[in-house]
Amino acid sequence: MSGHSHAANIAVKKAKQDAARGKIFTKVGREIAVAAKNNPDPNTNSKLADAIAKAKAANMPNDNIKRCIAKAAGELSGDNYEELTYEGYGPAGSAIIIKALTDNKNRTVDFVRTAMRKHGGSLGNAGCVSFTFTNMGIIIVERTPDLTEDAMMEYALEAGADDVISEDDAFEVHTSVAGFSSVRKFLEDKGLNFFEAQIEMVPQNKITLEGDDLAKFKRLIDALEDLDDVQNVYHNVDLPEEEEEE
Fold first, then answer.
1. Segment 42-54, tens digit of pLDDT
2. Which of 5, 32, 87, 187 is most solvent-facing, going by the fewest CB within 10 Å?
3. Which of the 8 DSSP states describes residue 204?
């Protein structure tokens, strides 16, 4: 099992998550609420169980998680969210996919379109770039003294994972979309700590941007990720490691 790493620097990524914890909790909370809407039992709702695992990986308190589920179950007042996907192009023809959860579709598309235009991008039609991405389960497991590379490989093979990439401070486990929930649960039951656990859209090929194009692209991604309604932003740009570590 080997391949190209999805995460260049797990420790840095985790630090960024910690710095933006409040916003992350809000975004993950929406995912939990949507997943729990028709079935608030994670034992029989794998989508909800996956959302809870994602929340725990972001260090979201159990009370917050329970509150989100209660809202979705109608025990508390809450908003109804719908899932939206936008596709488009950034500077130099870069490909961007935006996943959103919103209670106001018109507001969200207006904010996304404005951010794209302001920073050299444009929205496209559905399917314009998604064919160049692959849906994949990504589980980033904390590397500890007790968790050796051999042990991680054995766990991953037994769980049915597709790939494992070894990093200095983490293991990156790749799964199919269909196998994500079962692999996640297997590793969770082994007591492993996750930095990240979610379905992601991974580009089949990456492009390199330089100079003004790179600067514009980074500003665009920052602007999109800062929107409250936007859950995830995926793209095909190979960002230099020094850019990842800023």
1. 999 999 999 999 9
2. 5
3. S
